[in-house]
Every structure is written in C-alpha cells, then in structure tokens.
Amino acid sequence: MSSPKSTQSPTQFSERQLTFGEAIKEAIAEEMRRDKRVFIIGEDVAEAGTPFKVLLGLVDEFGTERVIDSPISEAGIAGLGVGAAITGMRPIVDIMFGDFTTLTMDQMVNQAAKTHYMSGGKLKVPLVLRTTMGATRRSAAQHSQSLHAWLSHIPGLKVAVPATPYDAKGLWKTAIRDDNPIAIFEDKMMYTLKGSVPEGEYTIPFGVADIKREGTDITLVGTSSMVHIALEAADALAELGISAEVVDPRTTVPLDKQALVDSAKKTSRAIIIDEGYEQYGATAEIASVIADGAFYYLDAPVKRMGAMNVPIPFSPVLEDVTVPTAAQVIELAKDLCGKR
Amino acid sequence: MTQSESPIVDAANLRPEPSDLEIDREQWLHMYEQMCKIRSFEENANELYLSRKMPGLTHLYIGEEAVAVGVCEALRKDDYITSTHRGHGHCVAKGAKLDRMFAELLGKEAGYCRGKGGSMHIADQETGNLGANAIVGGSAGIATGAGLSIKMRGSDQVAVCFFGDGAMGQGLFYESANMAQLWKLPVIYVCENNQYGEYTKNSEAAAGTYLGRAQAFGMLSVEVDGQDIRDVYSTMRRLVARARRGGGPAFLLCNTYRFLGHHVGDVNREYYRSKAEEEEWRTARDPMQLLAGWLVEQGLAEKAIFAQIEQEVSNEVSVAVDFALNAPYPAVEEVDQHVFA
User: Fold this and answer.
1) Do A154 and A268 belong together in one domain?
2) What angle do CA A320, A321, A326 make, to 5 degrees?
3) Residue B9's pLDDT is what?
C-alpha cells in the first residue's frame, strides 16, 4: 500500500479542547448537516443519546427521522443499514457494545463486506458501523471485549480504532464520506478523555499512521487506548535513557504498513500493544508486517501484548490483569533494549 | 406445514384494483412467455451443469415460475427485489438479460457481476435487483433497509423480499419484519413455500403456521396458490398498491413446489419425497399448463400460440447460451479489483 507521509496531529496548534465523545458527536453532526443522506440508527440513540451519552442532543437538531431509535435487534439494524446503503442512503448503525457486533456478523461479513465485490463493482455499501471496545469498566465478559480484529479479518471492510479526540473526529468524517462499509471501534473508557480539536473542517485519511511520539531505541505500536499506555510507558522509559517511538496506525484496515516498517527500521525493536485478545489478534498481523518488512534491521524479536486469552472477568482484581499496562510495557521494553 | 387452517386476515384491507379486470390477452401471454423463459433458462443451466460446462452447482426454479413472474409483473422497473440462492427466476422476471445471466453462471466477464458472483449472487441495479443471497434469509434486512431508504427519500417505490420457507427458520426475518411493520415500510415479504428446506419437509422444521408468524406483528398476511399466476399477480397488485400509498408492509405466502432437487446434483430424492408426489405436482399443478389451460378455456388464446412462444423462447435462450459459452473469462488481474469501492 502506498503510504503518504505520516502526519503529526496539530494538537499543539489548537486551544479548543473537546472530549473524545464530543469530538465524535461533532463529526457526526457536521456530516449530517453536510449530507441529508446520512442518518443514524440504533438502540437508544435518540433521546437517550446512547448509554454513554455521546450522541446526546443530536436528535434535537436532526429529529427522529434521522436519529432513529431501533428495537434491540442488532442483526436487523445492520441488515437495514446494508439495504439503505445500497439504495442511496449513508447509514450509521450504532451497536452499543462491541460484544454485540457478534450479532451483526452475517450482515457485516457476508453482506456488507461482499456486496461490492460480488456485484462486480456495481453496488456500493456506504455504511458505518459504530461500536465500542475496551475493558476495565467492570462490565464482565459480554460488555468488555475488543473485537476489532474480527472485522479486520474480512476483505471488504475498513476498520478504525481512534485514540484521540482529534483523530476520532477526522476519521469519523472520512468514514461517513467513504463508499465502503466501515467499522469504528471507540474505547468506552476514553469518552471523557480531553484533547485538542481545532475549529473548522478537517478529515484524516484511512491507512495513514500517526507518530504520536518520536524516538530512536524502540517502537511501541499502540491502537486505541493502548496508544496512551504506550505514551505513558515512553515517558517512563525516557527517564531510563530509552527513547521510545509511539506509532498509532489509527486504522487496522487499511494498515499503514510502510510507517510501521519505517519506524522499526529506525529503532530496531518493536512491541505491539492492542486490547484485543492476543491469540490471532491485531498484534499478530502488525508484528508480522514488521518482522517481514524490517527483518534485517531488527535487534530483537518483535513482541506482542494483547488482552489475556480469557473471557474478561468481572472482579476488578481479575479484570485488571487481563489488559496490558504501562508497567508491563516498560519491563518488556527494558528487556528488549538490554537495560536491566 | 399446511396453512389451510389459517385464516387469511385483513383481506378487507385489500382494496380491489379495478384494472385487475382489464388484464388483456397480450399481458397474460407475456406472463406465459416470462415463465417459459425461466423454465428454459433453468433447463439449459441444468444441461450446462451435466455437460460440465458450468463450474459449481446451481439451484433450479422449475415449478415455481408463477411466483416470480406473478410478483414481478406487479412491480415497476425501479422497484427493488432481493433474491435467494434459487434466484434465476426472480432475476429473469425482473427483466434481466439472459445472455448476461448465463455468462455469470459460467464465470465470464460479460456476466452481470463480471463472473465474481456466479449463480447465487446475480445483482442488476438496472432492473432493481439488489442481489441474490446465498445466506438463507440473509436478505430480509437488506430488503427492509431498502424500504427504509424509500421512505426516507420520499419515493413511492416498493421493495420485495423473496425467500423460501426455509428462511422462516432464521431470526433476521423476524427482526426485520417487526421494524417494517413498526415503521410502515413499503416492503412485501414473499415467502415461496416450496415445502422443502434442502432435503427436509417443512412440517419437520416449522411449528405453528407461517401466516400466523407474520400476523403476530400485525402484518397484513395473505396466502395464495403459488402455481396459479392469476392468484399471485392479482393479490400482489393489491399489496403493491397498498404499500405505495403508505399502507405498510405485507407478507405474501405462495404455496408452490420445486419440481427438481435442492440443486442440480440432487437427483435421487426418494429418501425425502416420493416420485408420486413429484409426478402429481408436475402433471396437475404446473403453473405454465394452468395458465395456458385457463387462457384456452376462456377463449383468450388458442393452443398453437403456446408452442409458438416456446419455440421463440427456445431460440432466444440458445443464442444466450452460445453468447456465454463463447464469452471470455475475466482477466486474472481482476481478482483483487472491487474489494473496495
């Protein structure tokens, strides 16, 4: 894949601070104003504004015709989204918890993802599936998973995992304008996270990684909330004399392979941190890209850190150990850099 | 599962369409020709399979022609349909070209999907065909979403969802039908009850009645003789008119029969249904013979006209098959095109 030069988020250039949730709502609202074909359908998206309140107020501006409360029928609304998309609308299908995307799988995997290809390029499915990810909310095994790798596995779907308010807004606007089915996974623990979001129009292309912090000794690839774990680790590592570069792919499909390889070539070491289950996870795909593309430059094996391969437990003492932490990243980075 | 004990609800809601009475000889003959095209298409598809000229398998529609034609004749070109793995009939009835359909069956570039879809995935935007679906019941959401889109765009189109009795075992239908009824979407769910889900009799697969299930949503639900195109067409006309004027969705149960197997390779069927049963449907319940017989009886047509239509169709189909056989395959470089728009 061709990779435009990675762009730095101009966070330092903006004084306006929005939360992750506010940035998402602003993106959706702007696109709904811009294009009458855009609508959102899901459980409790209208007056309730979703359980996380991210969409609060959208219905006041756009009405219940375009912010549609649906029955609890994930497969059904995903299917309606596909049908509406094929016939001229640009639906956003809101699936409250990422765990519930399992109920949409036939519609996403067999319908949305394949319609354009199977029709020889005639039909298009401009659909955005909006859902969540992320553990440590004490929500137990069926409300805590990060299942973005499932959809990333399927040709024909694009997948975004934004980490900052700035990225979330730009990626969301791009997604709504894209003619392909897209899934956006939002870490529900980040909705109140604040960050700079400049006034005015901007979009962020899919498939362009962002170097969140430059460094020379080790590459920390983080996705979604794991970007912040990586940044926290990088701060601590700096004090130990280890210069860590933090790379955020921002989208798992398309994946900015060039940026990942370039960073690993520069630093010679890499750790991939992602909150999906480690087995067959996004970390494996990214690690293989780096191992393949930067093999002759590597001084250490490419390491992966994903969620533990267990159903997410309820008890806080158990749940907390299932997710990668900055402390674990620091220890592993020290090992790889031979700093003990 | 027999439906005969179920009441046909809400029939009073179906306003008679005066124009029903004005269907003329030419239109009936056109419908006969359409059914004939489907049958001939399928016979040739079977032949292509048997002579190993067609890759894979295909599911033949022979015996059910009155459903596709009766339904689609009541639609406009810009109305939508979604179809099934047994979808050639729907495709032809909605107006697709036979040569491009055969080309798709053979995996050729000239096919409707450039050979990427095959028999089970023909889609044709030009005629409102949103695509055949190889997931049983998989298009219930798509058709309902098309209905939502129609309503949001303020159009007076109608979306038709074709599916078999087997699809009544899938949950997606119930989620979709619920929303269609809730929001009065212009969707007509056409259940082709050919009585077998693959190799299993529907009485072994379905509790209660199909009509009763749709009625549970408060949906207008009507049962017709799927072998009698007059019954299918006239009922469909009323359902379409009702949907166009904002009257909401409907469920049309068409009792029909698959004359052949689940797919072309399903030749020995006696372990799940008897030859006597098949013979009875073929001889007494053939939709083409039923329409021809009625037209002759009414003095609307002479017997000779049907042989003439069949000959004309046969010629057209031969040309289409030849076109497909001689058409080039897509370039291998196309394999990763159209993954993304």
Assistant:
1) no
2) 85
3) 44
